[in-house]
Amino acid sequence: MHTPVPTQATAAQPDPSRGAASRATGVPRFRGDHPADTRLLTACLDAFADQTAALPPRAERTPAERDSAEHVARAARQARHQFLDLHAGRVYDELTTGRRRQVRVDDLAFAAAEAYPGLVPSRAQIAADRLVPQSAKSGGELDQGVFFTHLLGLRDTGEHLLRSMLAPTPRALELLPEFRRTGHLDLGQATVRRDGFVAEVTICNQHVLNAEDDAVVEALETAIDLALLDDEVAVGVLRGSELSHPRYRGRRAFGAGINLTHLYEGKISFVDFMLRRELGYIRKLIHGLSSPGDDLLDLPGGKPWIGAVETFAIGGATQVALVLDRVVAGSDAYFSLPALNEGIIPGAANLRLGRVVGRRMAQRLIFHGEQVPADSPQALALCDEVVKPDEVDAAVASAADRLADPAVPANRRMMHLAEESDDLFRTYLSRYALEQSVRMHSADVVAKLERTWVNRRASAKPDGDSAAQA
Question: Which pTM does this prediction carry?
């Protein structure tokens, strides 16, 4: 699964001379002995770090020095690949106490940084990266991509990690008594309100067209957890709040996908956004919650979810619509998934979109940015019901009545099993972790973000994702 590096010598010593590329950087040969290989990896990565430290600051490097730094980084990444090829299962078992603990992806990454220095970036390194633009980041998120591609690539560790990410978040468990008492919580970037047997979760990021960022993903997962934990709730509704942008003031919008300005500014994280979003709230919409005591007779079945798509569902918002049990759209709304505009992978849409709309239409959406009006025949593959804008609420309520039937959870569980097994999703996410971490730090992505961000600032447009399309 790893990308080969054409060097196999022992790790070289640093070359501090300015203006010349470093000496050949070698990748050690790991033998399969975990303690010995761990010591070898640490020494190897320390040597690579010394080589990089001997170079001038990134902005002051000559072309030869930039090439040298890239060569060292690739060799270090190759060493991590090869170590994890042999020891990913052992590493995971250590970090989860023999898989007796459910550890979320962020805690898992930082625990690995402490137990295996250099394998993945530390908490301090990630915090420092968040203070600089995407173009100036250290590239440590690529090492996180390597780490998770190996953990998810192994069936036993991958399945345990998938299940761990279906556990309710600590914040949701802390807030649950208050939600049960009041039936309403404002989480900042999202709200959750119970009305009878229905829980309505609303994204609240109005100034950026309800685009998603790290904070929104955290708030949405908490809100969805609360709806799933509350026994009085039988059906969930997901929708966007009213917008504050002058063009849409007073209108709801389902969402504008990723916040491109946050991505440009380095505030979108690989683990807390890209991985947590797919493994966390989106997958919980499909499968519900799990707990350490779940067994064959107590499988997570989740609850049915309805999407109220108003005005637009752009990018990530269309990704979410793909997993909902019923999508009600206003006749003036549209769907789009313009992945090539930002150059990154649109989550698990590449896994799900083709079976929903067909391969050709999926390519038109992802590669060509085609917009699909809700009132067009093509939209019937993306939504179930199209009504006048002022009839969306009534249509959602009618759908909730239907989906509250006690037979729905078991049937939806079997449908999801037939469509997307854990093994299929795990395999996809294993490769996604590697590909997405690379895309986030690719030169063409940074260039596209630069053009988008500069153009948006120049025209004073809101800084949510795909504001130009909206």
Answer: 0.90
